[in-house]
Amino acid sequence: MNPLLGCALSCLLLVEGFALSAQSRDAKTASITHATVVDVATGKELPDQTVFIQDGRIISLSAASSPSAPQGETIDAHGGFLIPGLWDMHVHIHDLADLPLYIANGVTGVRMMSGENDTRSRREELATARWAPEIIVGSAIVAGNPPVWPGSIVIKTPDDARRTVTASNRAALIS
């Protein structure tokens, strides 16, 4: 594996692991030093930066040469690249053992398509994964008549559509 890629993936794993552990009540701090930060808004690479993280959130970004000292756990990126977490907006999760692969590849959030009618139990199952991206679970497939996929919610009238959206939203809020 390319050493820079390995370092970048390690940084992402460490940051994500830190973010997951930051969900406890204790305030957690960390600094990632000597990273090249990719500014996705401008496309520019910002070399030799220090990123300060507190409670799972990026607080500041500064040149590694700035007078402010790194805080908390210090992770030396050795010139690796640091990018924002990526989102995959169309996934189908069949095996919880696959979830760490998203994190290892920089994907910190996914939208799971083709949810089931019982989203509560699916959400509970997904929550048992130790290493996983943030997961947004879609509703069951909503289709016209006849449905393309078995188990789809069949919509025949505008009132069916309104009831289905209301029920799906209610189920998502309860879950």
Task: Describe what this molecule looks like in 3D.
The protein is built from four helices and ten strands; from the N terminus they run H-E-E-E-E-E-E-H-E-H-E-E-E-H. The strands form three sheets. Strands 1, 2, 3, 4 and 5 form a five-stranded mixed β-sheet that branches. Strands 6-7-8 form a three-stranded parallel β-sheet. The protein has two domains: 3-82, Urease, subunit C, domain 1, CATH 2.30.40; 86-174, Translation Initiation Factor IF3 (2-Layer Sandwich), CATH 3.30.110. Helix 2 (99-104) links the parallel strand 6 (86-91) and strand 7. The model is unreliable at 1-26 (pLDDT under 50). It is an alpha/beta fold and 175 residues long.
Domain count: the total is: 2
Overall pLDDT confidence? 81
- The beta-strand count equals 10
Percentage of residues in strands:
25-35%
Give the assembly state of these chains: single chain
Q: Report the biggest beta sheet as strand number plus sense, adding barrel if it closes.
A: 5 strands, mixed
- Which series of helices and strands comes N to C? HEEEEEEHEHEEEH
Helix content: 25-40%
Put simply, the count of helices is 4
The structure class reads alpha/beta
The low-confidence runs, each spanning 5 or more residues with pLDDT under 50, are 1-26
CATH fold-level assignment of the largest domain: Translation Initiation Factor IF3
The CATH level-2 architecture of the largest domain is identified as 2-Layer Sandwich
Name the shape in a single word.
Answer: elongated
The level 1 CATH classification of the largest domain is: Alpha Beta
**What's the gyration radius in Å?**
20 Å
